[in-house]
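All the exercises in this workshop are built on plain-text protein records. Sequence and backbone structure share a record, each on its own labelled line. The question running through the whole workshop is how a given chain folds. The record below serves as our worked example for the rest of this section.
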Amino acid sequence: MKYGIVLPYNSARRTAELAREAEQAGWDGIFVGDAIWCEDPLIALTAAAMVTERVALGTMVLAMPLRRPWHLASESLAIDRLSQGRLILGLGAGAVWMGWQGFPDVPTDPRIRGELLDESIDLLTLFYQRKPFDYDGKHFHLRLSLVDEMHYPPRPVQQPRIPLWVVGIWPKMKSMRRVLKCDGLIPMKLDERGEYTEVKPEDLAVMRAWLMEHSPQGKTFDLPVEGKSYGLSPDQREDVIAPWIEAGATWWIESSWGMDEETLLGCILQGPPRS
């Protein structure tokens, strides 16, 4: 189990300062969110990369329908090389309730957003290989075979690609099959009425078993879970996290959404809830 913490976005400078504090306090990773209109999380992670040496730098999660995959490939490549291989890209179809109504040209239909996410995953994987390819999707068309390789950017430090985590919604099989193309599952769940509900350790265990059954033999997945343990005693923290470890979770990501500055700093300085 590795331990990360969510940092607030909308201040690249503060993200860098808090990332440095998190690294010194023993956290394994820091993660930032995304919105349709905010200080760009990739710039915030770039700032964090400049003042840290060890901590992983991740997104939870980038709204892929807002980004051109070749632009993200270039930006993520730069952070990967700048940080010497510490970037993790968490990807999703986007939370449309976060201000999307102010941008009517941006697709909000779930089907279209899912298609854009799928094609972006395909293209990021191809871009990181630094080889010519042609691609004809429903939304994106590329002819890199027409571009001299001398114009290609270098390959990322992390091989075969920068790790891609993606939201997987149980029991939606189309969403789960998307995870098979990636390196990590960000778990979500629908109840019998088709409404989002809390993911529990036993749910993660079922999702992990499905991935193991349907993925190529030997392939492993990161299984990050997000929750709160700050303010609990050491024994209480262990009681919260132990079932997730047993279910196969590989990352505990401390949720700090809504924390005020003083509480967040206290959470960071307390360090990860290691058993």
